Amino acid sequence: MDELEEIRRRKLMELQAKREKELEELAKQQEMQRQIEMQKKAILRAILEPEARERLSRIKLAHPDIAEAVENQLIALAQSGRITRKITDEMLVEILKRIMPKRRETRIIRK
């Protein structure tokens, strides 16, 4: 019985060590993700006017995938130096019109 308990105890310790390592790795990933988000927000704050930033945050609530694509595109343009002035709300609307998928208009014909 002592050998069996010793094996169980070792196995439990191995599992606990593995679990702690996984938790540490997860914490590192979360911290890295948080830092990336902070950097993205700082860049967007620098290139967007307040109205445009507000519109983008509202779009993020309704269409997170589209907002993410716009954010990534704007950040890439800013990092490459192609954005020379702050983006206004009107400019953002034009960008969104180009990116957002066209909706098919539903028409009902009554006979």
Question: What do these coordinates show?
Answer:
There is one protein chain. With 111 residues, this protein is mainly alpha-helical. It contains four helices and no strands. Helix 1 packs across helix 3 (64-80), helix 2 (50-62) packs antiparallel against helix 3 (64-80) and helix 2 (50-62) packs parallel to helix 4. It starts with a helix and ends in a 12-residue tail after the last helix.
Question: What key phrases describe this protein's structure?
Answer:
4 helices, mainly alpha, single chain, 111 residues
- Give me the strand/helix succession: HHHH
Structural class of the secondary elements? mainly alpha
Number of strands: 0
| Intertermini distance | 86 Å
Total of helices: 4
Cα-atom radius of gyration: 25 Å
Q: Which parts are unreliable, with pLDDT below 50 for 5 consecutive residues or more?
A: none
- What fraction of the residues are assigned to beta strands by DSSP? under 5%
Characterize the main sheet: none
Shape: elongated
Mean pLDDT: 92
User: What share of residues is helical?
Assistant: over 70%
Provide a brief overview of the structure.
The chain is mainly alpha-helical and 111 residues long. Helix content is 78%, strand content 0%.
Secondary structure blueprint with pairings:
Elements: H1 2-47, H2 50-62, H3 64-80, H4 89-99
Helix pairs in contact: 1-3, 2-3, 2-4
